[in-house]
Amino acid sequence: MPKSKVRKKTAYTPPADRRTPVKVKAAGPSNLFYKIVMFGLMLIGLLWLIVNYIAGPKIPFLNDLGNWNFAIGFAAMIVGLLMTMRWR
Which of 31, 44, 66, 71 has the most CB atoms less than 10 A away? Predict the structure, then answer.
């Protein structure tokens, strides 16, 4: 069987005149209030779960919430962790 011919392809280079430079605005550090809220939410969520485990049945409103205490504690921690993605 005869060997197939190999075709050489030229490398594609985009035209230089079509590229427009984009200026990127430098992002500064995060605000102190943002950091306080972020770390505060993580700590509040952790403390909520700790208090629920230790004294949950003794505190009336925590006892009324039941398993929703886990959702509240984990939600606060997750929101705090999601805020870390925008922390600079």
Answer: 44
Query: Alpha-carbon distance 41 to 76, whole Å?
Result: 5
Q: How many CA atoms lie within 13 A of 52 on its CB side?
A: 20
Cα(70)–Cα(48) distance, rounded to whole angstroms? 8
Q: pTM surpassing 0.85? A: no
How far apart are the C-alpha atoms of 44 and 36, rounded to whole Å?
Answer: 12
